[in-house]
Amino acid sequence: MKLDNLNIREIMNQKVVSREYKLLLQKDLFIGDEQQALKKSQEFWHDFSQAINNIVIGVKGDLDEIEDRRIIRFYDTDEYMINSNSYILRERQNIINDEREVTLKFRHSDRYISQDRLMNRGESKFEEDIKTPFEVLYSFSDTQKISTIEKLKKMEDATNLYPDLADKLSTFNGQEIIRTVGVPIRELVVKGAKFQIRQEPKLDSKCALIFWYKNDDKQKNPVAVEFSFKYEDINEGYTRKVAQRAYDVFQILEKLTSWVDLKSDTKTAYIYKLDRLTKC
Q1: What is d(CA 58, CA 243) in angstroms, rounded to the nearest whole number?
Q2: Distance (Å, whole) CA 242 – CA 43
Q3: N or C: which end of the chain has fewer CB within 10 A?
Q4: How many structural domains does the chain have?
Q5: Residue 115 is part of which domain span?
Protein backbone atom coordinates (compact mmCIF):
# COMPACT_ATOMS: atom_id res chain seq x y z
CA MET A 1 0.00 0.00 0.00
CA LYS A 2 1.49 3.36 -1.05
CA LEU A 3 1.60 5.99 1.67
CA ASP A 4 1.28 9.69 1.01
CA ASN A 5 3.27 12.27 2.98
CA LEU A 6 0.39 12.93 5.36
CA ASN A 7 0.10 9.27 6.32
CA ILE A 8 3.85 9.04 6.87
CA ARG A 9 3.74 12.03 9.22
CA GLU A 10 0.81 10.51 11.10
CA ILE A 11 2.75 7.28 11.62
CA MET A 12 5.88 9.09 12.77
CA ASN A 13 4.05 11.33 15.23
CA GLN A 14 1.91 8.88 17.18
CA LYS A 15 1.57 9.95 20.81
CA VAL A 16 0.95 7.61 23.72
CA VAL A 17 -2.50 8.77 24.77
CA SER A 18 -2.74 6.50 27.82
CA ARG A 19 -0.60 4.31 30.05
CA GLU A 20 -2.38 1.27 31.45
CA TYR A 21 -1.03 -1.05 34.15
CA LYS A 22 -2.50 -4.57 34.31
CA LEU A 23 -2.21 -7.45 36.75
CA LEU A 24 -4.12 -10.70 37.24
CA LEU A 25 -5.79 -11.43 40.58
CA GLN A 26 -6.50 -14.80 42.15
CA LYS A 27 -9.67 -15.79 40.34
CA ASP A 28 -10.80 -18.29 42.99
CA LEU A 29 -11.33 -15.40 45.41
CA PHE A 30 -14.09 -14.04 43.16
CA ILE A 31 -16.29 -17.12 42.71
CA GLY A 32 -19.99 -16.32 42.93
CA ASP A 33 -22.74 -14.29 41.35
CA GLU A 34 -22.50 -10.61 40.43
CA GLN A 35 -23.30 -9.40 43.92
CA GLN A 36 -20.62 -11.62 45.40
CA ALA A 37 -18.16 -10.42 42.75
CA LEU A 38 -18.96 -6.81 43.63
CA LYS A 39 -18.50 -7.52 47.34
CA LYS A 40 -15.08 -9.02 46.71
CA SER A 41 -14.20 -6.15 44.38
CA GLN A 42 -14.86 -3.68 47.18
CA GLU A 43 -12.80 -5.75 49.62
CA PHE A 44 -9.90 -5.70 47.17
CA TRP A 45 -10.26 -1.96 46.62
CA HIS A 46 -10.20 -1.35 50.37
CA ASP A 47 -6.93 -3.24 50.78
CA PHE A 48 -5.37 -1.72 47.66
CA SER A 49 -6.37 1.86 48.43
CA GLN A 50 -5.07 1.53 51.99
CA ALA A 51 -1.75 0.21 50.68
CA ILE A 52 -1.22 3.15 48.28
CA ASN A 53 -2.65 5.87 50.50
CA ASN A 54 0.75 7.34 51.38
CA ILE A 55 1.89 7.44 47.74
CA VAL A 56 -1.01 8.95 45.82
CA ILE A 57 -2.52 12.38 46.32
CA GLY A 58 -6.00 11.05 47.00
CA VAL A 59 -8.33 8.08 46.55
CA LYS A 60 -11.94 8.34 45.45
CA GLY A 61 -14.87 6.01 44.84
CA ASP A 62 -15.09 2.25 45.01
CA LEU A 63 -15.14 -0.72 42.66
CA ASP A 64 -18.90 -0.98 42.89
CA GLU A 65 -20.30 -0.10 39.44
CA ILE A 66 -20.94 -2.67 36.72
CA GLU A 67 -20.27 -0.63 33.60
CA ASP A 68 -20.32 -3.30 30.88
CA ARG A 69 -21.68 -6.76 30.29
CA ARG A 70 -20.56 -8.14 26.94
CA ILE A 71 -19.54 -11.18 24.95
CA ILE A 72 -15.94 -11.29 23.74
CA ARG A 73 -14.74 -13.28 20.74
CA PHE A 74 -11.23 -13.53 19.32
CA TYR A 75 -10.77 -14.43 15.66
CA ASP A 76 -7.84 -16.10 13.96
CA THR A 77 -6.91 -18.75 11.41
CA ASP A 78 -6.22 -22.37 12.34
CA GLU A 79 -2.51 -21.57 12.17
CA TYR A 80 -2.94 -18.38 14.24
CA MET A 81 -1.73 -16.14 11.44
CA ILE A 82 -3.10 -13.00 13.10
CA ASN A 83 -1.66 -13.57 16.57
CA SER A 84 1.68 -14.89 15.32
CA ASN A 85 2.17 -11.48 13.69
CA SER A 86 1.55 -9.73 17.05
CA TYR A 87 -2.03 -8.73 16.22
CA ILE A 88 -5.28 -9.59 17.92
CA LEU A 89 -8.68 -9.36 16.25
CA ARG A 90 -11.41 -9.05 18.86
CA GLU A 91 -15.17 -8.55 18.81
CA ARG A 92 -17.21 -7.17 21.69
CA GLN A 93 -20.97 -7.60 21.70
CA ASN A 94 -23.14 -5.76 24.21
CA ILE A 95 -25.33 -8.26 26.06
CA ILE A 96 -28.12 -5.73 26.54
CA ASN A 97 -28.61 -4.38 23.00
CA ASP A 98 -26.46 -6.74 20.84
CA GLU A 99 -24.40 -3.84 19.48
CA ARG A 100 -21.08 -5.08 18.09
CA GLU A 101 -17.65 -3.53 17.73
CA VAL A 102 -14.46 -4.99 16.31
CA THR A 103 -10.95 -4.05 17.40
CA LEU A 104 -7.70 -4.79 15.64
CA LYS A 105 -4.75 -4.34 17.99
CA PHE A 106 -1.03 -4.61 17.38
CA ARG A 107 1.32 -4.89 20.36
CA HIS A 108 5.11 -4.79 20.41
CA SER A 109 7.86 -3.91 22.87
CA ASP A 110 9.45 -1.58 20.30
CA ARG A 111 7.52 1.65 20.03
CA TYR A 112 8.54 2.38 16.45
CA ILE A 113 7.56 -1.04 15.21
CA SER A 114 4.20 -0.74 16.92
CA GLN A 115 3.33 2.71 15.60
CA ASP A 116 4.12 1.88 11.97
CA ARG A 117 0.49 0.96 11.20
CA LEU A 118 -2.39 2.57 9.37
CA MET A 119 -5.01 2.50 12.12
CA ASN A 120 -7.43 5.15 10.91
CA ARG A 121 -10.67 3.35 10.10
CA GLY A 122 -12.53 3.96 13.35
CA GLU A 123 -11.45 5.07 16.83
CA SER A 124 -7.68 4.69 16.93
CA LYS A 125 -5.47 4.67 20.04
CA PHE A 126 -1.75 4.40 20.61
CA GLU A 127 -1.19 3.29 24.20
CA GLU A 128 1.37 1.84 26.54
CA ASP A 129 0.45 -1.42 28.29
CA ILE A 130 2.43 -2.40 31.39
CA LYS A 131 2.21 -5.83 32.95
CA THR A 132 4.20 -7.62 35.62
CA PRO A 133 7.16 -7.63 36.08
CA PHE A 134 7.01 -4.14 34.52
CA GLU A 135 7.02 -5.40 30.97
CA VAL A 136 6.11 -2.65 28.50
CA LEU A 137 4.21 -3.19 25.26
CA TYR A 138 3.18 -0.43 22.88
CA SER A 139 -0.35 -1.03 21.68
CA PHE A 140 -1.84 0.46 18.52
CA SER A 141 -5.54 -0.32 18.12
CA ASP A 142 -8.51 0.65 16.01
CA THR A 143 -12.14 0.02 16.97
CA GLN A 144 -15.15 0.29 14.70
CA LYS A 145 -18.79 -0.68 14.98
CA ILE A 146 -20.21 -3.39 12.74
CA SER A 147 -23.78 -4.48 12.06
CA THR A 148 -25.44 -7.32 13.93
CA ILE A 149 -25.47 -9.43 10.76
CA GLU A 150 -21.92 -8.82 9.53
CA LYS A 151 -19.83 -12.00 9.43
CA LEU A 152 -16.17 -12.59 10.18
CA LYS A 153 -15.47 -15.84 8.37
CA LYS A 154 -12.51 -15.20 6.08
CA MET A 155 -9.34 -13.14 6.17
CA GLU A 156 -10.80 -10.87 3.52
CA ASP A 157 -13.60 -9.99 5.97
CA ALA A 158 -10.93 -8.73 8.35
CA THR A 159 -9.00 -6.83 5.68
CA ASN A 160 -12.20 -5.23 4.38
CA LEU A 161 -12.38 -3.64 7.83
CA TYR A 162 -8.61 -3.09 8.14
CA PRO A 163 -6.93 -2.88 4.69
CA ASP A 164 -3.47 -2.28 6.19
CA LEU A 165 -3.53 -5.74 7.80
CA ALA A 166 -2.91 -7.55 4.49
CA ASP A 167 0.40 -5.73 4.01
CA LYS A 168 1.60 -6.36 7.54
CA LEU A 169 1.10 -10.15 7.73
CA SER A 170 3.99 -12.42 6.81
CA THR A 171 1.65 -14.31 4.47
CA PHE A 172 -1.87 -13.43 3.41
CA ASN A 173 -4.67 -15.38 1.78
CA GLY A 174 -7.99 -13.55 1.65
CA GLN A 175 -9.93 -16.81 1.34
CA GLU A 176 -8.37 -18.39 4.42
CA ILE A 177 -10.97 -19.21 7.06
CA ILE A 178 -11.00 -17.37 10.37
CA ARG A 179 -12.92 -18.64 13.37
CA THR A 180 -13.56 -17.97 17.04
CA VAL A 181 -10.47 -18.80 19.09
CA GLY A 182 -11.14 -20.87 22.20
CA VAL A 183 -14.65 -20.09 23.41
CA PRO A 184 -16.79 -16.95 23.57
CA ILE A 185 -16.16 -15.11 26.82
CA ARG A 186 -18.73 -13.37 28.98
CA GLU A 187 -17.09 -10.24 30.33
CA LEU A 188 -18.09 -8.16 33.33
CA VAL A 189 -16.44 -4.75 33.76
CA VAL A 190 -16.50 -3.14 37.20
CA LYS A 191 -15.47 0.49 37.65
CA GLY A 192 -16.14 3.46 39.92
CA ALA A 193 -12.76 3.91 41.63
CA LYS A 194 -9.77 6.15 40.94
CA PHE A 195 -6.75 7.70 42.57
CA GLN A 196 -5.10 11.06 41.93
CA ILE A 197 -1.48 11.08 40.74
CA ARG A 198 -0.98 14.76 39.84
CA GLN A 199 -2.02 17.90 41.68
CA GLU A 200 -1.93 20.58 38.96
CA PRO A 201 -3.38 20.14 36.48
CA LYS A 202 -5.33 17.43 38.24
CA LEU A 203 -4.79 13.95 36.84
CA ASP A 204 -6.60 10.83 38.02
CA SER A 205 -5.79 7.23 37.33
CA LYS A 206 -9.01 5.31 36.66
CA CYS A 207 -9.33 1.73 37.89
CA ALA A 208 -11.25 -1.31 36.68
CA LEU A 209 -11.78 -4.97 37.43
CA ILE A 210 -12.38 -7.23 34.43
CA PHE A 211 -14.07 -10.59 35.01
CA TRP A 212 -13.97 -13.30 32.36
CA TYR A 213 -16.33 -16.28 32.36
CA LYS A 214 -16.85 -18.99 29.75
CA ASN A 215 -20.08 -17.90 28.10
CA ASP A 216 -21.48 -21.44 27.90
CA ASP A 217 -20.63 -22.16 31.54
CA LYS A 218 -23.65 -21.77 33.85
CA GLN A 219 -21.38 -21.82 36.88
CA LYS A 220 -20.02 -18.63 38.40
CA ASN A 221 -16.33 -19.43 38.32
CA PRO A 222 -14.27 -16.74 36.54
CA VAL A 223 -11.48 -17.99 34.31
CA ALA A 224 -9.62 -14.69 34.77
CA VAL A 225 -9.88 -11.57 36.92
CA GLU A 226 -7.73 -8.61 35.91
CA PHE A 227 -7.18 -5.34 37.75
CA SER A 228 -6.01 -2.33 35.79
CA PHE A 229 -5.39 1.35 36.32
CA LYS A 230 -4.62 3.93 33.66
CA TYR A 231 -4.03 7.62 33.21
CA GLU A 232 -4.35 9.61 30.01
CA ASP A 233 -2.92 12.65 28.27
CA ILE A 234 -3.58 13.22 24.57
CA ASN A 235 -0.36 15.28 24.36
CA GLU A 236 1.75 12.60 26.11
CA GLY A 237 2.64 15.06 28.86
CA TYR A 238 3.77 12.48 31.40
CA THR A 239 6.21 13.93 33.91
CA ARG A 240 8.82 12.07 35.94
CA LYS A 241 6.79 12.56 39.13
CA VAL A 242 3.61 11.17 37.59
CA ALA A 243 5.42 8.17 36.12
CA GLN A 244 7.27 7.52 39.37
CA ARG A 245 4.06 7.63 41.38
CA ALA A 246 2.36 5.17 39.03
CA TYR A 247 5.43 2.92 39.10
CA ASP A 248 5.42 2.89 42.90
CA VAL A 249 1.71 2.05 42.95
CA PHE A 250 2.33 -0.88 40.60
CA GLN A 251 5.17 -2.13 42.80
CA ILE A 252 2.87 -2.09 45.82
CA LEU A 253 0.13 -3.84 43.87
CA GLU A 254 2.50 -6.69 43.01
CA LYS A 255 3.18 -7.20 46.72
CA LEU A 256 -0.48 -7.70 47.67
CA THR A 257 0.11 -11.44 47.71
CA SER A 258 -3.23 -12.23 49.29
CA TRP A 259 -4.89 -10.93 46.11
CA VAL A 260 -2.55 -11.00 43.11
CA ASP A 261 -1.59 -13.95 40.93
CA LEU A 262 1.83 -13.39 39.41
CA LYS A 263 1.86 -16.78 37.67
CA SER A 264 -1.35 -16.60 35.64
CA ASP A 265 -1.45 -16.14 31.88
CA THR A 266 -2.74 -12.87 30.49
CA LYS A 267 -6.34 -12.95 29.31
CA THR A 268 -5.36 -13.19 25.65
CA ALA A 269 -2.76 -15.88 26.37
CA TYR A 270 -5.42 -17.85 28.23
CA ILE A 271 -7.80 -17.87 25.27
CA TYR A 272 -5.09 -19.03 22.85
CA LYS A 273 -3.83 -21.69 25.24
CA LEU A 274 -7.38 -22.97 25.65
CA ASP A 275 -7.74 -23.18 21.88
CA ARG A 276 -4.52 -25.16 21.49
CA LEU A 277 -5.60 -27.60 24.21
CA THR A 278 -8.96 -28.05 22.49
CA LYS A 279 -7.23 -28.89 19.21
CA CYS A 280 -5.00 -31.56 20.76
Answers
A1: 16
A2: 26
A3: C
A4: 1
A5: 13-279
